[in-house]
Amino acid sequence: MKARSLILAIAASIACSTMAQPIIHPKEGTTAASADGKVKITLVAKKQNYSMAMKDSHDPDINSPKSVNVSPDGKKFYVNSLEGGKTVVYDMATYRKIKTISHNFTDQGSQHLWAKPSGFYKWHKQWPTPNTFMGKPVEATFSHAGRYLWVPYYRRTYDNNAVEPSAMAIIDTQKDEIVKLMETGPLPKMVATSHDGKTLAVTHWGNNTVGLIDISSSDPDQWHYTKLLVVDYELPLNFGNRHVNRDTESGYCLRGTVFTPDDQYLIVCCMGGAGGLAVIDVKNQKYMGRMLGMMNNVRHIVLNNGYLYLSVNSAGYVQRIKLDDFMRAAKAMTGERGRIDGWENCKVGAGARTIELSPSGKYVFAACNNASRLCVVDTRTMKMIAEIAVDSYPVGLDISNDGKYVLVTSQGRKNGGGNAVNIYSIDYAEPEPVIKEPEPAPSDSIAAQATDGQNTSSTQNNIMRWLQSTNGKITAGALAAVLIAAIAVPVSMKRRKK
Known about the structure:
Blueprint: H1 2-19, E1 31-33, E2 39-48, E3 65-70, E4 76-81, E5 86-91, E6 97-102, E7 104-105, H2 107-110, E8 133-137, E9 141-143, E10 148-156, E11 167-172, E12 177-183, E13 188-193, E14 199-204, E15 209-214, E16 224-230, E17 254-259, E18 265-270, E19 277-281, E20 286-292, E21 298-304, E22 307-312, E23 317-322, H3 323-332, E24 337-339, E25 344-347, E26 352-357, E27 363-368, E28 373-378, E29 383-389, E30 394-399, E31 405-410, E32 420-428, H4 443-451, H5 456-469, H6 476-497
Parallel strand pairs: 20-24
Antiparallel strand pairs: 1-2, 2-32, 3-4, 4-5, 5-6, 7-8, 8-10, 9-10, 10-11, 11-12, 13-14, 14-15, 15-16, 17-18, 18-19, 19-20, 21-22, 22-23, 23-25, 26-27, 27-28, 28-29, 30-31, 31-32
Helix pairs in contact: 4-6, 5-6
């Protein structure tokens, strides 16, 4: 009861604080810079649906944009329009719209897209046409070196209280088309891909559960759920016929989700309830417990340079702690509870939502909803060094792989604002590195080359090029695949000669 009262108080506080705020629509060309000259921010472009008079930036497909994702190669960006039921695809170089992907489905029209049910997700009632709905896209994650984009739906449109299994679309980014649909638990919000590309986690805001999916195959038909994990307790969804505000009545309101660099553990933000960070042992597919000690109402989580970073929504902070210290405490917790103190704190704008780091990890960019600001934190001092206006009520944020662009979505609220995507260019006094997405594991391509009868030296050259492209970042599994392929190809060639 106390936890529920705390959530309701936070929600009421946020609502009251935003009612009196003026709506902000900064103009293109707006700039801001840090006092030390390390960072300069310029609003270079927009995609918006609040003014038809601004023809160059107006796009009717931008309808309550929830999130934005820049492709790993930096060539495109994808905007999830929640209320519009669309994912809008743009060219990163020109900002030109390439395609609009609809999330409207019918039972017959989408039947071929659905993966086999996992058996983990139960329906509360029988619906005559359960797969006829509009999906409301929330967040997204890339997999298979950027080939696929996974987009979970807040709920199916007929499911007003978000108690039934929702769904998730998988978009082939080469075609920008939906090639697979998978079931999820109620109200999925966050998805995350493991670093080795073998596992995908989908976090359910609606009932305190997390699903793990095996995506190790390059064939989408082979992807399948392996486990459904419960954080402390599975929220009963027996709401009856009463209308429920699922923004507040959702247990721990699981949100930010990230794999540790070794992919052994998954860390999940508990935005509601008693708060904290849920820790899951991915290797053994076991829930370990909930770590406390950070501020309440944590929304987003990222890892960089050995640190764990959090955004704290209600208080408007960015917090961090060393990942090794956090995991040491998590492994030592007893009774599914643990605590770690010693967090470093930086006050940013009110309502800190999505955060991302520059490629070097020197700067945190935070979308601050209530403040309608993009804030920048210097991680070397954990001080906010710059801020710039954003269209009112920003929520989502992503950064290009070279750090030169930060994109922010402003969802809006009933009293205005939002319906905009702000594109900022970032100038650094010190050049940032470019994050290169690892190449797909070469085993499939090498096998194909061997089948086609190419000679051994050609295959070995391809292996060497792939090894060089990883810049020394290669998992043991991927290395093993390469070595097996390197041995198998010449053996295969000798057999053919016989």
